[in-house]
Amino acid sequence: MEHPPVATTQAEKAARIDAMMEQASKALVARDYFAAEKFASGALRRAHQEQDFERMARIALPLQEARRFKRDMAIDTGKVTVVDGEIPMGRTLTAGCYLVIPPRVGVDGRMIRDAADEKKVPVVVVVREPPTREGLWPIVTVGPVTVRTKMTPPKPGPAKKAKVGSKSKAKPEEGDATAPITPEPEWFVHACEQLGDEAIGQIAATLPAATRVAALLDRLEAHPNHEKLHQRLAEACREALLEPVRKRKPGIGDFMDDAF
């Protein structure tokens, strides 16, 4: 089987990126948001490899749009699954919101998200670590970097039926921070906002724009459900276009890659 020739010139590489974005645009029109995200995120990575900040800025917003539709589809189901046991896969992995709690960890949440994308199942996944002494919930997302923040847990509500992957059946007691709590779907939106805001806050505004682009890209891969991350990436890309070429190679240690 013959393979297409490898693009060697800048013009050929740019044409490949444009072709991927054309496919992403067609997928958006067809409401195939998973395909749109796949093509756009692939184009974004290629554009970054080529330091093509102009194309990166144009790609970020269609990618944001595809991911927004996926998130809304998951939230609109009204379904919440607490995962503290077996990881839902195959037929048990359905559209909705997933709260991953101990003993499961951040990589388990990433596994659920990746499996859902493979199946084209819209999900929003939030991973909670053990509560702090103050009763706060540390939430975390992992990828090329780790993003972690703390938030006030939702108030315990009425007892709910046990969810797939969860061994928790008892009604949580008021004030018991370790008791299983099943949040409403709206809570997941709030949690994703806080994680994304923390990711943005990890990056110093005084860094060269090209360095910020690389840092934002890593955080966007770790946490794709945050619209402002996409917007900040597009802004940084436009700023990078105005920088001298010598500033476009981020060095090791130029930005912190873990919150705490």
Structure notes:
There is one protein chain. The chain contains 7 helices and 5 strands; from the N terminus they run αααββαβββααα. The longest helix has 24 residues, at 53-76. With 260 residues, the chain is α/β, with parallel strands linked by helices. The protein has helices at 10-29, 33-49, 53-76, 106-119, 185-201, 209-222, 227-240; strands at residues 80-83, 96-100, 123-128, 137-142, 146-151. The model is unreliable at 158-164, 166-178 and 250-260 (pLDDT under 50).
Brief overview:
By secondary structure, this protein is of the alpha/beta class. The chain has helices spanning 10-29, 33-49, 53-76, 106-119, 185-201, 209-222, 227-240; strands at residues 80-83, 96-100, 123-128, 137-142, 146-151. The chain is 46% helix and 10% strand.
- Uncertain residue segments: 158-164, 166-178, 250-260
Radius of gyration over all CA atoms, rounded = 20 Å
Strand order of the largest sheet: 1-2-3-4-5
State the major sheet. 5 strands, mixed
Could you give the distance between the termini? 49 Å
**What fraction strand?**
5-15%
- The number of helices is 7
Taking all residues together, what is the mean pLDDT? 87
Which term fits the overall shape? globular
